[in-house]
Amino acid sequence: MRPYLWAGAAVVVGLLPVSAMAQSAQPILVDEAHFGTVHEVLGAELQIAVPRANCPAKFQPLKEGPCFDKVILKPAAQGETRVLAPIAAQTGKDWISGAYGRDYRLYDLFPTAEGFQARELEFESSDVIVPRDCYALAGEDVGYAIEHRKGGDVAVESQTVACGGGPRQAHGPYTPEGPPLTPGPNGGWHRTERLRVQGTMRYLAVPGQCEEQYSIRVTWCAKPAVSYLINNPDVKELDLVAARQPVTAGDVLIEKEIDQWVLKRKSKKNSFKADSRWINKSLLVGVEGCVPMESIGWWVTGQNDGLYINERALNRCGAPLAPIPTEIWEAYGDDYFIVDCGRDWRKGRPRSHDDKDGKKGGDDTQAAECFDSAGPYLRRTGRSSATVVVLNERARVDDRLYAGSYISYDVAEVRLNPDKTLSARRLDYYDPSGIYMSRCSTLDSGPSESKGFVIVRSMGISWARAYHWMSCPVY
């Protein structure tokens, strides 16, 4: 259908076609699913530390923690040295993975004049950077291949990914189909890790009594915020978050446990008021390559002058999950009656008259002579109106009609009038509904030929069978 043929033609929706054989044809495969290949992506090589009896205290800073006496530290100028510490049950294996904190831990060691400082990582992290054309696989987080070398065991970071598309199977285990990968010259996704993303720290008002000058709305105390405005007279207002219940440092609140205010100056010197925000404001800025794993929490933090609060959320960082491979199928709907007008439909169609409000094309117009065949069709099917496909050029069986196709066509509503005359009007942008395949969705982003009509022969006459391409996941 070519929408530019009749500017101002009426748009009609909800008209049901009278079909010969609704949903009569089986879907046809248009394009097979395209699968990616499974690879390992390698990261850093880590030294390994495990708990050991009789470890000198200076090499075991954490009680019952790993013994770092075998770790060779990098020079301070090169930064921290990452160390893998498997839990006791994992020792002696050639592959270490699982839940962070339960099956293994990571430490960063930094040399000092007295020896070293050890910092346990709160969340799992790695130097695995997945290339841009590859994707993460569900259940395949970073693991560690243990290599037994002359100088000692080494843990090599590794993540199994799919490159060039989704994998052939929905669940692992997956077997690599090619050599291990490292980031190419174009780089890759964010390193694979867990990261707690934080928003800007804000002032916090807490329920309770305090000195009158710091009291807000009688029952809240906002000493840090009020003090800042007193000491910075050029600042007119600032963000203020109010806790609805008493809190202490370390508490994590949810959205319904806080209110957002704006602390403003009154006309009287060093006098302030708090107005509620009409719309809550977020200062949490996402990190490229990271997606939230949890809802936002409001974290209460203690500082020298009182309590503050900010938004935080744990994020998963790295390659996005692999897409599910899909097959493209052509599914069919109703068969529409064909009105074969040749070129008479446009040339012979009377011009529509104006409505009372001056708009063009508001009423049906008497149909051109080529619509005469629609009258018996409507009477035979017991309908007063129907949606039909109008051919403006000759078409044969298996020809396809779609926006931009080489065959010009239209979709129109034909109607039997009380005086037994026939009226017709074009339907702009008509899209047949009711085409369905289980577990599939319409391919709305497909090429123009992905939806339209195909000429078929049924019951001794030609029909325009509606079709639409469908995207169907393979699992």
Structure overview:
This protein has 3 domains: 37-186, no CATH class; 197-317, no CATH class; 326-473, no CATH class. The protein is mostly beta strands. Strands 10, 11, 12, 13, 14, 15, 16, 17, 18, 19 and 20 form an 11-stranded mixed β-sheet that branches. Strands 1, 21, 22, 23, 24, 25, 26, 27, 28 and 29 form a 10-stranded mixed β-sheet that branches. Strands 2, 3, 4, 5, 6, 7, 8 and 9 form an 8-stranded mixed β-sheet that branches. The chain is built from 3 helices and 29 strands. Helix content is 5%, strand content 39%. Residues 1-22 form the signal peptide. Residues 348-363 have a biased composition (Basic and acidic residues). Keywords: Signal.
Q: Total strand count, please?
A: 29
Helical content class = under 10%
Question: Which oligomeric form is depicted?
Answer: single chain
What class would the helix/strand composition place it in? mainly beta
Mass-distribution shape: flat
Percent strand equals: 35-45%
Radius of gyration: 35 Å
> Unreliable stretches, pLDDT < 50, 5 or more residues?
1-16, 18-23, 348-363
Average predicted confidence as pLDDT: 88
Question: What's the total helix number?
Answer: 3
How far the N terminus sits from the C terminus, by CA atoms, comes to: 35 Å
* Sheet with most strands: 11 strands, mixed
Number of domains: 3
Signal peptide: 1-22
Keywords: Signal
Biased composition (Basic and acidic residues): 348-363
Region (Disordered): 164-189, 348-367
